[in-house]
Write a structure and sequence with these properties.
mainly beta, Phosphatidylethanolamine-binding Protein, PEBP-like_sf, PEBP
Length: about 150
């Protein structure tokens, strides 16, 4: 599987429209080479450089298996949103308190849909996905704290 974005390159800065204190919109994501027997996709975006440990920005599951583009600022129809560490069930963008942080987008191809209620956490999603991941892909962007 492959995950990319027309809005930023792997390892490069995320666009300003993603900033939590800006437009707070997710970048467009392109998903390629999804295994043929995939039944659904899941997506997690988190920041491992947060002062109190990994900070979760976005959690989605039951994304339709045929999804190849997640449009800028949108959640794919049919997808279920989990609770991020801001306490929301939406995308919440970068807001690093200092320095440059890394933001990982990970997409997972699953062999089933998941019976998990809206607002479930990343930890609950990971537990439910266990044993169902066919493939995964990762894309990382950076973001610097405002001076």
């Amino acid at each position: 599987m492959k995950l990319s974005s027309p809005d930023f390159e792997n390892g490069k800065p995320l666009p300003q429209f993603c900033a939590y204190h800006g437009e707070n919109r997710s970048p467009e994501l392109k998903i390629e080479d999804v295994p043929q027997n995939t039944k659904s996709l899941a997506l997690i975006m988190d920041d491992p450089d947060a002062p109190r440990g990994t900070w979760v920005h976005w959690v989605l599951w039951n994304i339709p298996a045929e999804t190849r583009i997640i449009k800028k600022g949108e959640i794919p129809p049919g997808a279920v949103a989990g609770r991020n560490d801001f306490g929301n069930t939406q995308f919440d963008g970068p807001a690093p308190p200092s320095g440059i942080h890394r933001y990982y987008f990970r997409v997972y191809a699953l062999d089933s849909s998941l019976a998990l209620p809206k607002g479930s956490t990343k930890a609950e999603l990971l537990k439910k996905m266990h044993g169902h991941v066919l493939a995964s892909a990762e894309l990382m962007g950076t973001f610097a704290a405002s001076r």
